[in-house]
TrEMBL record:
Keyword match Oxidoreductase: yes
Cross-referenced InterPro entries: FAD-bd_OxRdtase, FAD/NAD-bd_sf, FAD/NAD-binding_dom, FAD/NAD-linked_Rdtase_dimer_sf, Pyr_nucl-diS_OxRdtase_dimer
NCBIfam families in the cross-refs: PRK13512.1
Pfam families reported in the protein's UniProt record: Pyr_redox_2, Pyr_redox_dim
EC supergroup of this enzyme: oxidoreductase
Protein's UniProt name: CoA-disulfide reductase
Keyword Cell membrane found: no
UniProt domain FAD/NAD(P)-binding: residue ranges: 4-305
Enzyme Commission number(s) from the entry: 1.8.1.14
Source organism per UniProt: Corticicoccus populi
Keywords linked to the UniProt accession: FAD, Flavoprotein, Oxidoreductase, Redox-active center
Family (UniProt): Belongs to the class-III pyridine nucleotide-disulfide oxidoreductase family.
Pyridine nucleotide-disulphide oxidoreductase dimerisation domain location: 328-428
Cofactor(s) listed: FAD
Length: 447
């Protein structure tokens, strides 16, 4: 039956949901609202455009007109949905010209998350920027083009902070990293992150860990740290986290989960069965433990769009949870994790053990073998894997992919030793580091 489907928010969640819905359903009316002017773009590519690794800005964008034509979607960019009338099944919308009501049969919420702009004295200055949207990227590019900064600080060691660090460095800008903890890239445990600061220093990056910004002065030219250190900087990037945009849902009385995201079931329905939600704004369950998580990554959003659109068209397939597999390139290092880390397992009061391997990326006698560190966390009673981590100069990403797949397949940790992984001296060793994890873990399992 023909329906009217209204989607709030584009990009990886809403735009993907619209395209998936149209593949299932050729007749229903689909209206997509986005308060910005770019309804579909690659967030992940923005730091690399700033660093000029990606020259063509337009390659990051899916033009609104093309999207609308390809998927037969009524796209209304520059229009913000400001309230939901659940009883009347309509939303209140506002653009530059007017405020009006739009009815729906099904409502899909994908408002994403917002980058946190910390409440620090002097933070609102002409040298300090966030990077979360295309306009943010354009502002940074324009500033670099106009002012040609020689020095920069990056506060925060998550995805955006680390990627911006590398890309600003590639432009010849002397960079300083500031992070409030002593761990860089929080998905990995502290012991796995130890090679990272040294690698940054080898690249000429100044690193301040266990420290934070206390204030800015001289229009952002001086960054004052809590330790008392003062840093002169021409450009400042703040990357201290994101918050899911739940106010619209909260004001409509939809249930918000304990992680701060909109609570959904395994079909991506909210507490109102006619309203769905997906992407950075939702709380789902961890694939292994079922623990509530709010994961802001593109692959889960794409999977959720598939599940949601299928459910609206009669599919019984459900969303089984998220591992949160994440990987990042930082100069010559690859850093990645899947599933729970030790902090999360401690918070869940779960008994676990772990094993670590320091190895070479391939046979040591073949040229180019590089250091590789792997770790897996598991239930010592039954061998179920809770999470895995990989750090290395070569081959870390493929080991992480194997470990993530093994966790998804619910393999026991000891079964890692049984995997037959492709071997030749340029690629691995006869006993791959992943196999070694399995052998070591087998000795720790309770008999």
């Amino acid at each position: 039956m023909t329906k009217k489907i209204v989607i709030v928010g584009g990009v990886g969640g809403g735009a993907t949901a619209a395209s998936q819905l149209r593949r299932f359903d050729k007749t229903s009316e689909i209206v997509l609202f986005d308060k910005g002017r770019h309804i579909s773009f690659s967030n992940c590519g923005m730091p690399y455009h700033i660093g000029t690794f990606i020259d063509d800005r337009d390659s990051l964008l899916f033009p609104e007109e093309k999207f609308s034509e390809n998927y037969n979607v009524n796209v209304r960019s520059g229009t913000e949905v400001i309230s939901i009338d659940r009883a009347g099944k309509c939303v209140e919308c506002r653009n530059d010209e007017r405020t009006y009501m739009e009815s729906y049969d099904v409502l899909i919420l994908s408002p994403g998350a917002s980058a946190a702009f910390p409440d620090i004295p002097g933070v609102e200055n002409s040298r300090t920027f966030l990077l979360h949207t295309i306009p943010d990227m354009d502002k940074i590019n324009e500033y670099i083009r106009t002012h040609q900064p020689k020095t920069a600080t990056v506060t925060g060691a998550g995805f955006v902070g680390l990627e911006m660090l590398e890309n600003l460095h590639s432009l010849g800008i002397q960079c300083t990293m500031i992070n409030r903890s002593n761990r860089i890239f929080r998905p990995v445990d502290e012991d796995m992150s130890t090679p990272v600061p040294e690698h940054l220093k080898e690249k000429g990056v100044t690193v301040h860990l266990d420290d934070g910004v206390n204030k800015f002065s001289e229009d952002g030219k001086i960054v004052h740290l809590k330790s008392g250190t003062e840093i002169k900087s021409d450009l400042n990037i703040m990357s201290v986290g994101i918050q899911p945009n739940v106010s619209l849902a909260e004001e409509a009385g939809l249930e918000i989960g304990e992680t701060g995201g909109i609570k959904v079931n395994d079909c991506m329905q909210t507490s109102d069965p006619d309203i769905y939600a997906l992407g950075d704004v939702v709380e789902t369950g961890n694939y292994v433990t079922g623990a509530p998580v709010n994961i802001a990554l593109a692959p889960p959003a794409h999977r959720q769009a598939y599940i949601l659109s299928g459910h609206l068209n009669g599919s019984t397939e459900t969303y089984k949870g998220v591992l949160g597999t994440a990987v990042i390139k930082l100069f010559d290092l690859t850093i990645g994790a899947a599933g729970h880390n030790s902090d999360q397992l401690d918070a869940l009061h779960l008994e676990y053990d772990s094993v670590e391997v320091e190895a070479k990326s391939h046979a040591g006698y073949y040229p180019g073998a590089e250091k590789l560190w792997l770790k897996v966390l598991f239930n010592p009673a039954d061998g179920m894997m809770y999470g895995a981590q990989a750090v290395g100069f070569d081959g870390a990403d493929k080991r992480l992919a194997v470990l993530s797949t093994a966790i998804h397949a619910k393999m026991k940790v000891s079964e890692l030793s049984e995997l037959e992984l492709g071997y030749a001296p340029p690629y691995s060793s006869p006993k791959d580091p992943v196999n070694i994890l399995g052998y070591k873990a087998a000795g720790k399992l309770k008999k």
